[in-house]
Design brief:
Elements (H helix, E strand, L loop, with lengths): L4 H15 L2 E10 L9 E5 L4 E3 L7 H14 L3 E6 L14 E8 L4 H11 L4 E6 L4 E3 L8 E7 L4 E6 L1 H13 L3 E6 L15 E6 L3 H13 L4 E4 L3 H13 L4 H4 L2 E2 L11 H17 L8
Parallel strand pairs: 9-10, 9-11, 11-12, 12-13
Antiparallel strand pairs: 1-2, 1-5, 2-3, 4-5, 6-7, 6-8
């Protein structure tokens, strides 16, 4: 039960390497509403097991059956469900319709190269050639490619602070699927700003501007998609003054979300963690990172 692209691709690759029979299904068209975004994927093994979701869980078993039929036939196919489908007994709760591309794996190497890129925190993609029924991790000419599925590295959360706020936020982030790196106030010297990239969010949960400053400077030297810091508006004014004194321009300082979080004030550690993580998730979803088809 997962939406994580890396786990889905790895499932497809492992089953192919085990017995040479697996399929990768991609959501390539939506008519009306849909529980998943374009580019959602699932992988199906020859024994009927599957990993991932392309709907709300109501059609995956039927899709797996179609994928097994495709594996046995050795041919790719497109499957329409809901609106416009020949399957009158499969209705999508959202009332719309979806088109799925079922690809029977013939070569696992493109998937393995995509997984290697994602582990190296690099953007990757798979191109599908409908005429040849093949996938590649090299960009294909537009007139030959039915779809290109883009992948970005897993969302990384760098969270620094102390006490219960740090503990709660790190724990909830981990269980929410974030790649979580937590730093206590006593360990800024161990912090390496090389871990910050465009798929990283920075959350600073200190009650001390001096303690957060080394982390904040590192964040502002990089391009994370989110930087947030704990404290009131008055605290943030003092933060702005301190950063200005260290030579940071207004444009840089304006990148900081403060007070941090989607709602507030949150004076309970669990509510604070939920507020921060919801704000990061909203910032992530506002940019079309994953699933471009």
């Amino acid at each position: 039960m997962t939406d994580e692209p890396e786990r889905i691709l790895n499932y497809a690759a492992e089953w192919f390497e085990k017995d040479g029979k697996s399929a990768l299904i991609t959501l390539v068209d939506i008519r009306g509403g849909s529980a998943r975004a374009l580019g959602a994927q699932m992988a199906v093994s020859i024994d009927g097991g599957y990993c991932g979701y392309v709907s709300g869980g109501c059609t995956e078993a039927a899709i797996a059956t179609e994928a097994i039929n495709a594996i046995h036939a050795g041919d790719d196919r497109f499957l329409l469900l809901g609106e416009g489908s020949i399957f009158f007994d499969i209705n999508l709760p959202c009332g719309g319709g979806i088109t799925l591309a079922i690809h029977v794996l013939k070569d696992v190497r493109p998937i393995r190269r995509v997984l290697a890129k994602l582990r190296s925190r690099k953007v990757a993609f798979l191109s599908y050639d409908a005429a040849r029924q093949t996938i590649t991790d090299a960009e294909a000419p537009e007139n030959k490619t039915f779809y290109i599925r883009h992948y970005r590295p897993r969302l990384r959360l760098v969270i620094a602070g102390r006490g219960i706020e740090l503990d709660c936020a790190a724990r909830i982030a981990h269980h929410s699927g974030f790649e979580t790196l937590a730093f206590e106030d006593r360990s800024p010297a161990k912090f390496d700003d090389a871990i910050i990239d465009a798929d990283t969010a920075i959350a600073l949960l200190f009650h001390d501007l001096d303690l957060e400053l080394p982390f904040l400077k590192a964040a502002l030297q990089k391009s994370p998609f989110y930087i947030g810091a704990l404290g009131s508006r008055r605290t943030h004014e003092r933060r702005r003054e301190a950063l200005h004194a260290h030579g940071y321009a207004k444009l840089d300082i304006d990148r900081i979300k403060a007070p941090i979080g989607m709602f507030g004030p949150a004076r309970d550690a669990n509510f604070l963690a939920l507020s921060v993580l919801a704000d990061i998730a909203a910032a992530r979803s506002s940019v079309n990172f994953d699933g471009d088809v």
